[in-house]
Design a protein that fits this description.
4 copies of one chain form a homotetramer. By secondary structure, the first copy, chain A, is of the alpha+beta class. The first copy, chain A, has one domain (2-134): Hotdog Thioesterase (Thiol Ester Dehydrase, Chain A, Roll). Chain A has 3 helices and 7 strands; from the N terminus they run E-H-H-E-E-E-E-E-E-H. Chain A has helices at residues 29-44, 48-53, 127-134, and strands spanning 2-12, 56-57, 60-67, 76-87, 90-98, 104-113, 115-116. In chain A, the strands form 2 sheets. A 5-stranded antiparallel sheet of chain A has the order 1-4-5-6-3, covered by helices on one side. In chain A, strand 4 (76-87) and strand 5 (90-98) form a beta hairpin. Chains in contact: A-B, A-C, A-D, B-C, B-D, C-D. Strand 3 (60-67) of chain A pairs antiparallel with strand 3 of chain B, so a sheet runs across the interface.
């Protein structure tokens, strides 16, 4: 199912996230995208935390990121996260990051899989999650 | 130019690199691949550090990673890094990570760009680097 | 000079900051305290970023932290930072972190030193910083 | 009980561990000391991992670190870890870090507590751990 649920959140590049090039280290973006999807799910109406409390985990299967321009220390970044697809047990997110001057810093996508904590096997998303996400289905 | 220079290095998953799923956090792999390419370049004969000292940086433009199986705390991982292509100012690396049981944990690729530290513009790689890498060119 | 300038800021524990105990990893608090002092200096009227742009760095000399109770994933923490002392070239900060239930999570202190970026030697803080901080001197 | 069990291990400063000062970020040392104590315990004869598998966790209660000289990118650091004291449920470690030129980079100490995973309460260390550690007791 194709979905179009978008949410934006802001965060500031921390000093410890820079590297000696003076840029935000490329490895730290994974945390930024995680913040983006966690806040998108909170806005959707189901926190990632509550999923885990019900025995469902969402590990990442695939992550692809383009670095368009450097983010630098103390930049306030806007992460826009789109929940874009639910296909069986897999949930996909698309992201863009812009800085305060609306310059494009990065685009990315991740695919996660619903996993049962006990069996450690893929599992369909819970019905209430499907209900929430279906409200944002696009044909 | 297509290249086939391969090098393997080992590292252990640190406690601080796990997350509450009990897995190595997906965002920490970027550092593992960086360790892989740094050690591959050292083996090739030119450290990344020496490039920076000559005013050349190598920021990452593109990073794609597949998570095949979880890495867990204290696992000793083997990262195999292949320098796979030099195309103008861009250098590409392919990676695989396996654990002690030779189970495939992850595959990934990154594309980096040679940048002049002063102009902050893409720049051709230095001749001695091209000489080194050309010895591993495949037709 | 003893100082009493206090500022509070909030942040949320990221998934990637937890470890397999299910707690925020002890090493991640250093970044939280850094966020605390960066925001305290912004509130005081001089960003850490602007200091660096003027050729002054503030590396940490000493860091001590007590972990009183675990912070867990998705907790919204309040970091209260007190700029507590300026002694020659050294600037000290005290911190407390509480969670949403006002439970004490951590206390800490850091001592930083003003360093000239070119000479890499300790240097007195700039006069405008001393002026700002003096307004909060306590006898 | 005062203990004197010492072990040294080496690691290299990763690029992603530097910050824009060009130093290893102060917050990353916590991971280095963790590597130090994990390897010290492996050498002692009981891995931290095996303790967790038996339902015992070792969260950090107190951490103090002095930064004596900067560690920089690609430095090979030697971390010397001393298991220094077992007092009831609390285990203390002392650390020093030197670089390749034997320059002192940092000294630190941590106190950890044995905790039962189910009750989340402090618990005495297991007997086999006490036996191992007692062999290194000093008067």
């Amino acid at each position: 199912m194709k979905i179009n649920f978008e949410h934006s959140t802001k965060l500031r590049v921390r000093y410890g996230e820079t590297d000696q090039m003076g840029y935000c280290y490329y490895g730290n973006y994974a945390q930024y995208f995680e913040v983006g999807r966690v806040e998108a799910m909170r806005e959707l109406g189901m926190t990632y935390k509550s999923l885990e409390e019900r025995g469902i985990m969402l590990p990442v299967l695939h992550f692809e990121v383009y670095y368009k321009a450097p983010a630098i220390y103390d930049d306030e970044l806007t992460i826009t996260t789109k929940i874009s697809e639910l296909e069986g047990t897999r949930l996909s997110f698309d992201y863009t990051i812009v800085n305060e001057n609306d310059k494009l810093i990065s685009t990315a996508k991740t695919t996660l899989v619903f996993v049962n904590k006990d069996s450690m096997r893929p599992t369909p998303p819970p019905n209430d999650f499907i209900n929430l996400i279906s409200q944002h289905e696009i044909e």
